[in-house]
């Protein structure tokens, strides 16, 4: 049950149609390279100038152009596809930052709305308030795959290890962490956080990322990663759009957990 996985790195902008075309071309490249599971980053089809511009360019799920486009694509290619996230309009005048997993027949097998929202001031000129226009999700989600359960998370979620522990204890062999990490936080924390989530839980990590300077001037860190359950980096991108690959043996997750069975050793405790 080994398989080839691929992470697609993008540099999405404000042209939704163009972003769908670019992502589709790289997904096709990944499939041609033998990948049976392919993942794209957070904000696959839209990196808007700000939350208001994003809200204005988004639609509800029934009218989003990307979903039928990617459904048709996987039917053509016969692959499993994670679209890292789309901006989907929901009630309350906000969007959900939502992942979609597609089976090879084009059906959506799982949806996950980002739980933890990025409300951070990195400097006097670099501030992010995702919660102003995005509604946070409230449910952890496991996507079914032929190789085992895939725990779905998005970007800022990676800083909340209890989410990953819950998913691991539910039996997933891998986590998806599609992202659009900033450059300062990426340089400081990207590798160590993702490797930590893999090591703590004996799980593979698929982390497709946005990378480079986008049309709206925002800079993202790139360095898409595929990480093994012992914390080893199996594949890494630079900052440009492209595809990375790794051979995945799901049994390696069980082997790592057998060596260090910390998932079985948690104990309740009092205080503080």
Q: What order do the helices and strands follow?
A: EHEHHEEEEEEEHEHEEEEEEH
Q: Extract low-pLDDT stretches.
A: none
**What general outline do the C-alpha atoms trace?**
globular
Main sheet characteristics: 6 strands, mixed
The CATH superfamily name is Carbon-nitrogen hydrolase
Number of strands: 16
> Helix proportion of residues, in percent?
25-40%
Task: Please identify the top-level CATH class.
Answer: Alpha Beta
Which secondary structure elements does this structure contain, and how are they paired or packed?
Layout: E1 3-9, H1 16-32, E2 37-39, H2 51-57, H3 66-77, E3 80-90, E4 94-102, E5 108-113, E6 119-121, E7 127-129, E8 141-143, E9 150-152, H4 161-169, E10 174-176, H5 183-201, E11 204-207, E12 211-213, E13 219-221, E14 225-227, E15 233-236, E16 242-248, H6 251-259
Parallel strand pairs: 1-2, 2-3, 9-10, 10-11
Antiparallel strand pairs: 1-16, 3-4, 4-5, 6-7, 8-9, 11-14, 12-13, 14-15
């Amino acid at each position: 049950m080994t398989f080839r996985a691929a992470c697609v790195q993008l540099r999405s902008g404000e042209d939704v149609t163009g972003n769908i075309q670019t992502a589709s071309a790289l997904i096709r490249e990944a499939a041609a390279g033998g990948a049976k599971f392919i993942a794209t980053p957070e904000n696959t089809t839209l990196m808007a100038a700000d939350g208001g511009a994003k809200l204005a360019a988004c639609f509800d799920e029934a009218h989003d152009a990307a979903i039928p486009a990617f459904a048709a694509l996987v039917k053509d290619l016969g692959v499993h596809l994670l679209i890292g996230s789309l901006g989907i309009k929901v009630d309350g005048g906000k969007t959900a930052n939502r992942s979609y997993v597609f089976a090879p027949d084009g059906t959506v097998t799982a949806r996950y709305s980002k739980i933890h929202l990025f409300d951070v001031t990195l400097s006097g000129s670099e501030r992010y308030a995702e919660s102003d226009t995005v509604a946070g999700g409230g449910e952890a989600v496991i996507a079914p795959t032929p190789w085992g359960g895939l725990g779905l998370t998005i970007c800022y979620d990676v800083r909340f290890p209890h989410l990953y522990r819950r998913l691991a204890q539910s039996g997933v062999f891998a986590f998806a962490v599609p992202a659009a990490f900033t450059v300062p936080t990426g340089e400081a924390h990207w590798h160590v956080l993702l490797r930590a989530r893999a090591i703590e839980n004996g799980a593979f990590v698929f982390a497709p990322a946005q990378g480079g300077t986008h049309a709206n001037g925002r800079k993202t860190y790139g360095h898409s990663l595929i990480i093994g359950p012992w914390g080893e980096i199996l594949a890494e991108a630079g900052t440009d759009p492209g595809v990375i690959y790794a051979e995945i043996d799901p049994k390696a997750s069980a082997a790592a957990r057998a060596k260090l069975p910390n998932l079985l050793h948690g104990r309740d405790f009092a205080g503080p």
